[in-house]
Design goal:
The structure is a homotetramer. Chain A is of the alpha/beta class. Helix content of chain A is about 20%, strand content about 35%. Chain A contains six helices and 17 strands. Chains in contact: A-B, A-C, A-D, B-C, B-D, C-D. Chains A and C meet through helix 4 of A and helix 4 of C.
Chain lengths: ~300, ~300, ~300, ~300
């Protein structure tokens, strides 16, 4: 009941051809449609029509969309969002290509959030009958699926409150100024059994820090780094491990400057997972466990 | 709402000292209690008091216990189970060591199923404040947590019906006699986002095929195999990959003959995951993808 | 000075088209020539013209050829082989396609051994100027190079004596009947810093047990196993670890029944490496460390 | 014949207790002796008495010592070194603890080079009879052995000439100012089948850039990085991949400021390996393949 997963992120890019080369050839996503100037993409292990939408117009996040479990979750969550004090707009069927009816709101942080239940199901190339574990025609990093996104907000505590109180997310990890404080400087939030479906750190409202693609293991993370070198993709940091989530990672940039991540590993969460707390003095270790310090870009490069 | 995860399996062994050596020294579980002749164990990454209970008395499964999300889920599921036609007994607080009130029933397959919400929380050695990704004092295979169990039933379809209709599990994969058939010869069932929390294949009622411990990666699976060789643990099959779940695996036996598994990998599921179907003629590939044939032990060695 | 490495193995197959599919599409070798009915193959990381020659005519080893360091090594080794009592034949330039002058002898075990220094150098696709670590167009298992071969001999001690005394190989590991015995039941022999370039076990004279291709890591071994399943290649055993050499492995068969191996890992050897001894009662563990027993095929299926 | 391998490096540290904690507890080397204020260390997979000698006195390289294949290689190489114009001093037996007679010279680059044949052999804990693939009591990063060292010289071409002409090393890779140039700005040199046993880059004479320990795989490199974070070891860069050698790596510092490396992977070399050339404009990619740029510390932090 309620939010089931991160469905898709919609981002702006400066150059659609460069974006195709990046997301299709290097990351290995499949193009599922190109309609009205927008590019629709999915990972090889995703069944729904798309998990990434790319459109021209600069850089940054147009919106983030979560898929809900049941059609009726939409009305229930619409009520909750309105009760929280935010206006909700109904999105009609196919207003988004291949996506059913939904609701959309703008968060106090300025991010546009959409919820939907229906989306065209395309299936995967390995299929549903006696499938092989991976497809023969993988390209590039061969990212199987989207994993999560990280955004910035002037008030991360408020952002967290919305996701936990209204959308029933749980907090896996949080950053506080010092031990004993409950002031949220950053929060990692989940609805699934992963360490995070979305996270928030302090920064300007409305900005995207990164969105991440899952890879199956640390060897694939290395291979992804090799492909970044081969194809000239700018690397931000990595390969390394996060303290927060325990995941292994490379941050890198798409040709428009949007930060991407390949992410693998991390623990399993459940609704009773006890929130892990990081104090600000250990944040370097929390973000980049091996290096134990943030690079300047981490807090300043946003789109 | 409802079942949150596989909480613990309770098994019989012939020799408690041998079991300690196996589960504590080789698998690397922590002993959290030894009370009334029973041994309570948990993985290093589990917060609850135990995920395995070992007791003297031969071999086989005493019961399997699932943790539910909310206390009130117990009454709701009690009603559903009774409506399904099975008698339910209330388990009082601390009837099971460290476990709160619960309900228990015997399935038509003869397996004892317990549901509970409350259990003592011991936490982990890495803790909740600026934690390291793994503890310093890992032993043996250092299994972080239990993952799933597989049982046999004379009527796997009925078993599957109970878990899906009464407990809201979903089917990730199933085996049918041939394409187009809906007769369930085996089913892999999930409540979490993993490929399975429990599975069933045809066989005598009341029997255990195996219970499995998670490992983080394929390298750890190799290391586990090395430790089996070093410590003289009988290996059934592996390291290999399952077609069903895509997981990597070694099957092996505890000193009483109960089959264990170390398991890593597999895809992510959600409530809308489309059920994958295997036809009986491809079952060899489904179970052991690389070998593409079952060994005799797979269907005959049960406890 | 002397033998530098295993240069190439020449094997017979029943069906050349099936062999192409196996060695080129599945193993990922490159076809470098097809002349007079013979197929010449090399791995993507090999600089010389070929490391495998395939010809029609059943199954089994036509010959094994080692490359020597200096042209003058040929005369020196010719003398030594003749002094050992074996007739030597001079191979003239291009008697073997792309290969220079050499010498050939038939060992007491019935295996044909060729030594050569000159061979056409084709280079690699990553090249010698600012190279990437791996090529973009890898196919299948993408085996970078040949690693070693294992043959059978009625008198493994004699075989070992030839390689150590005449060709200056060292013994990394050997099997003896029991501790204290010096009777060689099997020997692993090296000229490079690897655990073995060639090995011998008891069996009929003139037979091939397997020849092996290097893979860079255990993850690639799993991937190779997946490709065997996808392409229908018969698997003998694995993925597993050898006790002898510590390497990880899958044994499998080409369409003619010749056994291949993918092999990764193992320790480094030097001329002063102390010979490791396995006693016959521990041979199961020596060959298949995790399973700790030989399958029937290990000693009976030869070509 | 000639140099067999890098035998040991002897380095100065500021604090012997801190060095013990670093090299024994964190890197996992074994202490084999502590005599006259010097600490003798070896990896768990090394048979000889030591591969690292640590002594008090600041930081930097006291000397590097290579083991030769035969006792008579010492006289032969003594002659060659003298013919090259360098004075050679005979080192008498046990002048170095546990080491036999040898020769020592000071290179034009100011580095002290020792050659020896005899050294006490301690063996390994896995032993020579039916050994397990790794010991039970591994500590920390559990480095099995030393791999190579990198030094700086004002004239890298001259340094390279000495190692190739006098000691018969081969060049696996070199850096030149631009394509077509033969001016050596850096060289990677091997006697074994590894990509390098020693390397040189431009910099002050007599300085140490780093010495490296082998790890078996990329997963172990990550684990080493985790241990650096846990134990507070300063990390220079990594985990990443080198373009040159293809190896995976983390650079880090011992408590005295000497740079260490954990290194895994890389290709196999032979005497006929064709030298790979990097042009200065691609050096960033050559050193840190994924990041494609040098950090400042790479060229400035030396001991």
């Amino acid at each position: 009941m309620g939010v089931m997963r991160l469905g898709f992120v919609q981002v702006r890019v400066t150059d659609m051809e460069a974006a195709k080369s990046h997301y299709i050839d290097a990351l290995g996503l499949e193009k599922t449609a190109e309609v009205d100037g927008r590019l629709y993409l999915k990972g090889w292990d995703e069944w729904d029509h798309h998990s990434v939408v790319v459109e021209p117009g600069g850089a940054g996040l147009v919106k983030m969309a979560f898929k809900v479990d049941q059609e009726e979750d939409l009305s229930e969550l619409e009520k909750r969002i309105e009760a929280y004090g935010l206006p909700v707009r109904r999105v009609h069927r196919h207003e988004d290509y291949a996506v059913g009816e939904g609701i959309v709101t703008t968060l106090p942080s300025g991010h546009v959030l959409q919820l939907y239940h229906e989306i065209e199901v395309l299936g995967t190339r390995t299929g549903r009958l006696n499938p092989d574990p991976w497809p023969d025609d993988a390209r590039g990093m061969a990212a199987p699926r989207i994993d999560h996104l990280l955004v910035t907000a002037e008030n991360p505590g408020q952002f967290t409150e919305f996701f936990t109180k209204v959308l029933d997310f749980k907090i896996s990890e949080r950053v506080v100024p010092q031990a004993g404080s409950d002031e949220i400087l950053g929060a990692w939030l989940y609805r699934t059994n992963t360490p995070h479906d979305i996270a928030v750190i302090p920064g300007p409202n409305g900005k995207l820090h990164h969105f991440a693609f899952w890879l199956d293991n640390w060897q694939d993370v290395l291979r992804a780094g090799d492909i970044m070198a081969k194809t000239g993709i700018p690397v931000d940091i990595g390969p390394t491990r996060h303290g927060i989530t325990r995941g292994t990672t490379i941050y890198f940039f798409d040709p428009a400057g949007n930060r991407n991540e390949v992410f693998s590993g991390g623990y399993i969460t459940y609704p009773d997972f006890p929130c892990i707390t990081w104090t600000a003095d250990e944040l370097g270790k929390g973000i980049f466990y091996i290096q134990r310090e943030l690079n300047d870009r981490f807090t300043t490069v946003l789109t």
